[in-house]
Design a protein that fits this description.
- It is a single chain.
- This protein is an alpha+beta fold.
- The protein has two domains: 141 residues, no CATH class; 90 residues, 2-Layer Sandwich (Beta-lactamase Inhibitory Protein, Chain:B, domain 1), CATH 3.30.1450.10.
- The protein is 24% helix and 32% strand.
- The protein contains six helices and 17 strands.
- The strands form five sheets. The protein has a six-stranded mixed sheet.
- Helix 2 packs across helix 4 and helix 5 packs parallel to helix 6.
- It is elongated, with a radius of gyration of 24 Å.
- The chain starts with a helix and ends with a strand.
Length: 271
């Protein structure tokens, strides 16, 4: 009986070890996740704080909101709800996948931060191009054991409560392909029009010089401001994630901008 019990225990141990091995990611799966995640853009769905340690998220999409709020008060926000942020590094460990966003909030500059790419007269930095989050942070997808077989699409789905990768600018696809024709033409013309989203305005005009937020009739309006005196100044007004108004003002030499007004405005056009 003892021999039978020992033999049964040995079989159980061998079976569990074999099962554990079968759950390990293959090298091809690791490469697919890295390729599918690297340089991808996502829309932030909850306030992301800056943090010295990775912000932990479970495969079920749960996280410690209280802890994140405390980190935000201590270190400030890495990104607000609706901001666009980019994956800049992915590391696959034994029981977690660590995703760096916008450089992870690094303060030091890298050599490639000074390199710009573009077509014609329009250029933008390689690092963080197309994002509007104020800083960066790191998120860790934490598993209670071996990661198991996964694809990049499944990783993105697990992060969905925090980061929305759907319909965002992709590093591997044409960002204009799925846009409505009027929006596509506006992006090509490098201008904003009513109905655009935050990321579509970023595609068209890049990062704004500054932003302002103010409540109006109980609704928060967000203005993105492009340009400064002397010259043309453009105000792009959002309610939620949609542009509701585009206002252009010419400010002469010595003019100053406060909120949505140019104190030395000579010409104005509304769209």
């Amino acid at each position: 009986m003892r021999r039978i019990a020992a033999f049964t225990a040995m079989l159980a141990l061998m079976s569990s070890l074999a099962f554990a091995d079968s759950k390990k990611l293959t090298e091809d799966q690791r490469i697919e996740i890295l390729r599918g995640m690297m340089a991808e853009y996502a829309k932030i769905k909850v306030l992301l704080p800056q943090s010295k340690k990775p912000l932990e998220v479970t495969p079920e999409g749960t996280f410690d909101q209280t802890k994140w709020n405390a980190l935000q008060k201590e270190f400030g926000p890495a990104g607000r709800v609706g901001d666009i942020i980019q994956v800049t590094h992915v590391e696959i460990e034994k029981e977690r996948i660590v995703v760096q966003l916008n450089g992870g909030g690094r303060s030091e500059k890298k050599w490639y931060d000074h390199i710009q790419v573009g077509v014609g007269n329009s250029t933008q930095p390689i690092s963080g191009a197309g994002t509007n989050a104020p800083s960066g942070t790191t998120v860790a997808l934490v598993f209670n054991g071996p990661i198991g077989e996964l694809t990049a699409a499944e990783v993105k789905k697990m992060l969905q409560p925090v980061l929305d990768f759907e319909k965002q600018i992709s590093a591997t696809t044409d960002p204009l392909a799925d846009l409505p024709e009027p929006i596509k033409e506006a992006v090509k013309a490098k201008k904003a029009v009513a109905g655009m989203t935050h990321d579509e305005v970023l595609m068209a005009m890049g990062k704004p010089l500054r932003k302002t937020r103010e409540p109006k009739d109980g609704v928060e309006n967000e203005d993105w401001i492009y340009g400064e005196p002397p010259g043309r100044v453009t105000f792009v007004t959002f309610i939620g994630d949609k542009v509701t108004r585009v206002k252009e003002t010419y400010a002469g030499l010595g003019g100053s901008i406060s909120g949505k007004r140019s104190e030395v405005g000579q010409t104005q056009t509304d769209q």
